[in-house]
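Lab manual, section 2.4: Encoding a predicted structure.

Procedure: take the sequence of the chain (469 residues), apply the prediction step described in section 2.3, and record the output as C-alpha cells. A sample record is shown.
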Amino acid sequence: MKPAERMKIPRQPMPEQDAVARSGNFKEVNQGYAAETACTEANRCLECKKAKCVDGCPVGIDIPGFVGAVSAGDLNKAADILLAENVLPGITGRVCPQETQCEELCIRAKKETPVGVGYLERYVADWAREHRKDLFEPPTPTGKTVAVVGSGPAGLTCAGDLAKKGHKVTIFEALHVPGGVLMYGIPEFRLPKVIVQAEIDTLRNRGVEIATDVIVGQTYTIPELMNEEGFDAVFIANGAGLPMFQNIPGENFKGVYSSNEFLTRVNLMGAYDPAMADTPIIPAKQIVVVGGGNTAMDAVRISKRLGADPATLVYRRSRAEMPARVEEIKHAEEEGVIMHLLCNPIEVLGDEDGWVRGAVCQKMELGEPDNSGRRRPVPIEGSEFEIPCQVFIIAIGTKANPLLTQTTPGLKTNRWGNIEIDDNNMTSIPGVFAGGDIVRGAATVILAMGDGKESAVSMHKYLVGETGG
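Recorded output:
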C-alpha cells in the first residue's frame, strides 16, 4: 500500500463500554480492537525509514516491526518482536502514556492523528496470551543470584531480562500479592488484575521466584541479602509509596484518605464490595479528590463507581496543566465526574464527632511558570467556597519511604530521599543497583520499566565481569 493510500485511513477508535453503564461497574472501559480493526490501524503506519516513534519508547520496542507484522497478518511475528523487548506488553498496552511518547513522535502526528501504537500493542499482547504458549527457551545458568526488591514494573522488567540471561532471580515483595502499583494502584477498569497476573505467571514460568510478605528494610536489610543470604547483586525497585499531604487544617478528621490507602483498599482488599471487605471504604454520597494526575483520576472514577454523586475532582491548575492522560480525563468527564479546576482546598471541615463534612476551597489563577515549567497557581483573595463531602481523598503525589534507605549504611540519597545512582544505575554500594520511582520520584509505569531494562543490562555486565557496573 502506497503512503498516499495509508494517509487516507482515519485512526480507528477504541471500542469502549458505555459511559453510563461503566460508571456503575468495575469492568474494563476499553474493549480492545477486533482483528479487522487492528489490521486497518496498522495499515496507517507509513513505514518510515528512520522511525522516530522508537526513540519515544523507554523500552526500545521495534514499533514499525511489530506494527508491520500486524498489517501483514503475521501475529506470531508481531508477538515475537513485541516480547523481545517488553516482558509486560499487556500492561503497557493499557496504561502506557503513548500519546506523549511513541505516538507523539509519529510522523502522522504532525498533520493529524498518530498511529494507535498503544492500541495495537494491547491487541498483539492479548492475542499472544490467548493463542500461544510461552516460547521461552531456558538459557544456560550463570550460577549468579540476584535479589530484586519490589515487584512493580521496574522490578518485574529487570527480573525478566536478567532471567533471560541465565541469572537466578528472586523478587521480594512487601505485600501479600505481587505486582506492586500494577495491582494496588491501578483500578480494575483500567488494568484488569487477570492481565497483571498473567504477565507475572509468565515470569514465574521463566524461573523467577517471588517471595511475598517480605519487607526489605525490616524482614531483611540490603546488607543481609548480600552478606548472609549470598546474593551476588541487588536491584532496588521499591517505588515511592509514602503519601504526601497538603498539611492543611482538618486532615486528621475521619474520612480523610491518602490515595495510596484508598486505592489499596479497593484494589487489593475488595473494598468495592462492602459486604465482603474487612476494611470497606466509608460510605459517602459526596466525595472530593484532590489532584490532577492519573492517580487522582483513578480515585475519583472509583468514587463514582462506589456511588458518590457527585464525585468531585479539585485541581489547582487548569485542564491544560493536568498531568493525567488525556484519555483518562475524557473518560472521567463522560462518567459524570465534576471537576473544579483552578481551585485548591485550604481546609477540611469536620462535624462534632470528628467526621468529614466538607472542604473549604479557594479559587486560583495562573501566574508565572514554576520549576516544572507550568504556570504557578496563585490564590484569589476572598474567593473561598465550601464543597460538602463525607470522604476527602488526597492524591497530590508520593515520595520515597525511608524504611529501606535508613537501614542500608553507605547508601547515598538526595534531599528528597531518592536513591542516587551512577550512569550504570549502580548505587553508592558496589553490586547494588536501583531504578524506578525510588530513583526518579513518582513517574509512569513505562519509565520504571525502562529503568528496569537499563539496570538489567548493567547488572549482567557486572555479574559476568565485563565491567565494574
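Check your result against the sample. The mean pLDDT is 95.
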